[in-house]
Specification:
This protein has 12 helices and 8 strands. The protein is an alpha/beta fold. It has one domain. Strand 1 and strand 2 form a beta hairpin. Helix 4 crosses helix 8. The two termini are 30 Å apart. The N terminus is likely disordered.
């Protein structure tokens, strides 16, 4: 179990539970979606046009303080009605961790220290090592990966839960097929849409001014617990640090996922567990599947 927990925290969290962080969600009022439903549900029933067995969408937050973790009876029941579960990546793959770590490295010839002035790097290193993040071990990795580790340690501490790990264990117990909507290369390619300069700046600001990032993460948890996926989408796309990567990180990936899911959902009932920000918005999974003729209904 300990090994699985490390795997999930180092893989499924890489792109959407990152420094800016977790896309720096802010608080917005409840919104109405295109069909008039109040989009305040993490769980959605997805009915194919041919009226065959329904599938389900579930919005996750990749890591959350243990005291804030919950999984409803409705979601548990929905999972039991399906034959297959999709995560963003196939986190049941034992080789996934190694592939993620390799893909998160800086290009050849670059080191983390080379991205900063000597005085800046000294301050960042001091703060990180004080927080228990040994910077010498991360010299060859992308800044955004290091920032994730720093903020999780400083905001959530060690007592966290992962929805992906929880669902993976339940899927295994139920004998469900387990699959991923994309590969490691797909996910890291999207992540690299955020320039190295932007990543370096976010790491510096997050480490030297951790108060803002802490407030953002705590607001994220409150927004997630409220279950308003439309608000989470809006919060994501309005954050300045997200603007240069939103097309690659959300829109393009959503379109690819929806195309695959509409085919899968016509064949068998599936349970889809992805970051909650992927569900809302005009190019979110809810809207995209509706355009394909599926009927989507929020389940409180």
């Amino acid at each position: 179990m300990r090994k699985s927990k490390r795997l999930v925290s180092r893989t499924t969290a890489w792109w959407s539970f990152l420094p800016f962080l977790t896309f720096c969600f802010w608080h917005f009022p409840f919104l109405l979606n295109a069909q008039g439903d109040r989009a305040s549900a993490l769980l959605w029933k997805v009915e194919p046009p041919d009226k065959s067995a329904p599938s389900f969408l579930f919005g996750t937050i990749h890591l959350i303080p243990a005291q804030d973790f919950s999984f409803s009876r409705a979601a548990d029941s929905a999972l039991s009605l399906t034959e297959k579960i999709f995560f963003e990546m196939d986190i049941s793959d034992p080789a996934l961790q190694l592939r993620v770590l390799k893909s998160m490295k800086l290009d050849s010839g670059l080191t983390l220290s080379s991205l900063y002035k000597p005085t800046e790097y000294k301050k960042i290193k001091k703060k990180l090592e004080k927080a228990g993040v040994p910077l010498d071990m991360f010299q060859s990795f992308l800044p955004i990966m290091i920032q994730q580790n720093f903020l999780i340690k400083n905001v959530f501490g060690g007592d966290t839960r992962s929805y992906e790990l929880f669902l993976l264990e339940k899927a295994r117990q139920a004998g469900l097929q387990i699959d991923g909507l994309e590969t490691v290369d797909d996910q890291v390619k999207a992540l690299r849409a955020i320039s190295l300069e932007r990543q370096a700046r976010m790491l510096k600001e997050g480490v030297l001014k951790p108060g803002r990032s802490r407030r953002q993460l705590l607001k994220l948890v409150r927004t997630y617990r409220r279950g308003d996926v439309e608000a989470m989408y809006r919060l994501t796309t309005r954050e300045k640090s997200m603007k240069e990567g939103v097309e690659a990180l959300l829109v393009e990936r959503n379109r690819k996922w929806a195309e695959r899911l509409q085919s899968e959902m016509r064949q068998r009932p599936v349970f889809v567990a992805v970051g909650a920000a992927h569900l809302g918005g005009p190019e979110g999974l809810i809207a995209l599947l509706r355009r394909q003729g599926f009927r989507l209904t929020p389940i409180p």
